[in-house]
Write a structure and sequence with these properties.
With 162 residues, this protein is mainly beta. The chain is built from two helices and 14 strands.
Amino acid sequence: MSNFNIGLSADNKTVYVTRGGDALPGGATNVLTDFVHDDTADVVDANPENHVLFHHVQEALYHAGILDMQSVSIVVSGALAAEYLSAAAVTVADPGTVPIVIKYQPANVNAANADFNFVSANPAVATVSAAGVVTGVANGSTTVTATEKGGTKSVVVAVTIT
């Protein structure tokens, strides 16, 4: 099940598609807000994000009075356009904290840590908060896995505590 927002620019030339909860760009009007796609019989492929782009955007625009899909550009948020996630290794001087920075790739756009669940492989070396902030507990190395809430993408971050 995926949630989406579909918005339209003031000049009706750009359509914005974001994951539910993500803000649309300034000046965009919500055409379909927090749309929940949970009808598995309606999904034409294994990727609901593709389905929403090829079906529900067209339907939402039709209801907004835009009949010619060729007249608009579709801009997809980093979260939906991402092929994978990346994050730089983290080094924490004990005692101390360092936030994890996750990026949607290949766009190299920063992700919001609130959109992820974080798990430390070794809490005896480092803990990680729900906000993605790593705290050093003891010298050593471990990893933190960040997994999208409601998504399928994850990234493993190398963590060193000195």
